[in-house]
Queue: 2 jobs
Job 1
Amino acid sequence: AAAELKTLQQQLNTTRKDQITGVNGTRTLLHLSERLLAGELASKRGATGKAVAAFKEAVGLEDRLHDTEPPDWPLPARHLLGAILLTDNKPAEAETVYQDDLARHPKNGWALAGLVASLRAQGKPQAAEETALAFREAWARADVVLTESRIP
């Protein structure tokens, strides 16, 4: 992963202009992928603060993308940010991240799973149970069991 991150960073440094091949520019998508990989690598190394910072940057980059169907970038940065905030014992911040994601993507199972965890971590059992019900409805036909809002 570290070698891939260096490769992404080199490509980002040498790609000066955003080439538009679809709706979103290649440099923008490259920068987003670099921030997500940097965050994941920092997370695995136990550098939670660096991971949070990288994921927050990724969220900002993702928010500037133009909407496309299917999306040019299918891996929601907020799901990764929320998960690392929970790991960092910041469930109230994670709740805000998941609520924001759900405002953009209603009934998203990944965000609902993270929201349930953040509500439980804050000692909000009634809200957690209501959200868990919404999660079960949204995830009823899924073939993946979620343990958090990202794939560990």
Job 2
Amino acid sequence: LNEAGDITQHISAYEVEHTAEDGKKHLITFLDTPGHEAFSGIRRRGAKVSDIAILVVSAEDGVKQQTLEALKSIRESKTPFIVAINKIDKPEANIEKTKQTLAENEVYLEGYGGDIPFVNLSAKTGAGVPELLDMIVLISELEAFKGDPSLPAEGIVIESNLDGKKGITATCLIKNGSIEKGMFINSGTASAPVRIMENYAGKPISSATFSSPIQIIGWDEMPSVGSTFKTFKTREESRDDVLKEKLQTEDGAKTNKNQTEVTDDNIRVIPLVVKADTGSSLEALVSEIKKLDTERIKTRVILGGVGRVSESDVRLANGKEKGYIIGFNTTIDAPAKSLAERSEIEIQNFSVIYKMSEWLKDVLTKSTPKQQVMESVGRAKILKTFSKTKNKQVLGG
């Protein structure tokens, strides 16, 4: 899989079947989270959801900033983890130096002053991958991870997106219980009848149990990435749960309405409409945008959504203070393009997140209000006044 800019920008889930040394077959679900710093929220969520974490470190580059960020997420979630020293096939690979830099960051591997398991591997050649899978199985047996397949499925929404043909789709990871066709699934105020369910490879399935990643198609609204989901056997139970969630949401909205927003005439605010291909991408974009705020210029995301840029998005950006529209791996409707040209609203579509950051940083720099500063170019002390007329004085200084 090749992604724009050669960096992983989405969370993905997939399953592998591994035959361990004892001959038993095991299903292992992997969550692949992005390494780029903008996606720290996704990494935290991945560490929280997982039973076992794998900290991937390059034998060529050693410990990098995103390695430390990932390590922090793993430790905060208190998840047992394995260190995978990758790229051992590279000419510049230095495994001993990598172990040393890990130790300098308080990651003490087995045989190197600690008890953290590690595997040397090459994702390119496949060397060390069977050993990594065996290690995962071993840790899962030691930790005794268990679930109850007789319960209705519960878990986490790890991704959501809007497909032009299928509608709203959510990738869910089952933490416990089972789900089958004919049930109903809720996440917050979003719900869906379980009619179309697919596995990680996009193949239709009729049931699934804990630890499996599934795709549910046909939600009535976009479920929030990172939110929990529950399943119900009847439509009535599902409706009652959604009604309860809506009442809680309304109560929270009333509380927030009483909070006043502080404004400052010396600070310029740039309105932004942000549209992305998936919920996790949207989350990362908004997080990255907030980092660019300064004391004199701020951004305000007036709309963040998943899906294509529409005519209504352009109308929203064309308010009292004209805003910008940022798209990420999405499309722009023809009517939206036409209205944007007439309204002089700029639409920028990106496929790599740091390109968006560079562009927006430049926009904010150019839009920052200029400050008038009185600069002194000289100074003198008056020693004597020689003559004085109505509009003229002669001074010595």
